[in-house]
Amino acid sequence: MTQMTFARAINSGLRKSLENDPKVILMGEDIGTLGGVFRVTDGLQKDFGKHRVVDTPLAESAIMGTAVGLAYRGYRPVVEIQFDGFIYPAFDQIVSQVAKIHYRTQGAVKMPITVRVPFGGGIGSPEHHSESPEAYFTHTSGLRVVSVSNPQDAHTMIQQAIASDDPVLYFEPKRRYHDKGEVDESIDPATALSMEKARVVTEGKDVTLVAYGPLVKTAKDAALAAADDGVSIEVIDLRSLAPLDFATLEASVRKTGRLVITHEAGQSGGLGAEVAASITERCFYHLEAAPVRVTGFDVPYPYSKLESHHLPSLDRILDGVDRALGRPNSLSGLEG
After folding, report:
1. pLDDT exceeds 80 at position 331
2. Which of 197, 102, 83 shows the shortest CA–CA distance to 140?
3. Catalytic pick among 102, 128, 129, 263
4. pTM for the full model?
5. Hey, what long-range contacts does 184-191 have (CB within 8 A, 24 or more apart)?
6. Which of 169, 245, 254, 294 is 20 to 30 Å from 97 at the Cα level?
């Protein structure tokens, strides 16, 4: 086991994929000489060459179109979108081509493209640099969408994503890049927990708290704080946003009878709505209360000075838990 930052864990996983498969190619803006704006790809161009780690023009549409052509020719391109809000120029290729080609050719043409997306807020960035666009892609059939929350998963799941014959949107919480954790680099991705599976992070019996990406850490902190008040929270890290691991979610909710979902994206049409509706359909007679969503607000992402009010905090999540338990407090009037 090695202590490493979240960013270094992704770097290590990318390095292993480059070493194990000569068809893996990294592409993105400033990922070579600079090592990316977050230094996630630092040193990879030096070790693998400019033909394997490619600095591209500042044109997301062109980057994704090139990745489609490479996938047609049997390569496994890994595309870095520099910031979440920059993905929209590539949206057409992702949802109109990448998501559909594998299915419509009945598997004859594979699209093994991994799209790395630093996402979410909490770093004080300007406009278009702190967005949470995951729901656009979970709504699109033909795409796998995952979000990692810790260095070990970051290391393992990037390798699983690259090895997949399906296109994968790989969402990285940028405010966690410097968080450290234990990483076992010897784990074989083929035998590790599948990237389609959710993980029970903290076991509990009173409330199921579902989170992913940057808010898993906050959810764990909420579980610790609630324990001091005699409330036992079961925290689930979704890991896979599409497809969702309903078996793990159902087992937890059937035990606790209460569900709280939290994410940074706005509430309307967010992933929390899908989780809440699906679990209500599947576990209606086990629920003791309506599911509660604790999310970002339905506004454009605010200026950095206001983002701490926009992002779900420990207090807002605990308020959501109180509402699920029928114990409203002073925050209960807040929506989201």
Report:
1. no
2. 102
3. 129
4. 0.94
5. 184/1, 184/2, 184/152, 185/2, 185/12, 185/16, 185/155, 187/152, 187/155, 187/156, 189/156, 189/157, 189/159, 189/160, 189/163, 190/163
6. 245
